[in-house]
Amino acid sequence: MIVSAFVLASILCVLSGLHVYWAFGGRWGSNAVIPTQVDSEQTLFTPPPIATLVVAAALAVAALLSLAQVQLINLGLPAWSLRTAMWGLSAIFLLRTVGDFRYVGMFKRVRGTRFARMDNLLYSPLCLLLSILAANLARY
Prior knowledge:
With 140 residues, the chain is an all-alpha fold. The protein is built from 4 helices and no strands. The protein has helices spanning 2-23, 49-69, 79-98, 114-138. Helix 1 (2-23) runs antiparallel to helix 2 and helix 1 (2-23) packs antiparallel against helix 4. The protein starts with a helix and ends with a helix.
């Protein structure tokens, strides 16, 4: 279980750091992380820096919760709340894996964009892995 927690927390921390980097204007890796229109490759939305920081904070909190679930750190939370948080985290990442059936996820219809290719190769499989790791920790 400790290995699962460490792997999950490590991935979440890297993703959190990447979001902080983007929030402060970083460009590396940002060219295919937002769904785009098929014809124009124009992004469907442009997240403001504050929203990107909120995502970064949520990912960091999730990393801490995963480490707390296996008692590598003490957040002073009851065991039932950590277990519930892990099930919730698993559900969130599973929902992201499934997607919106149009632009995002394994069952998307729009497939000819740069984002869609990256979603198929990396984003959705990574979300599935994160969901499985969180569910594994929830059972601990």
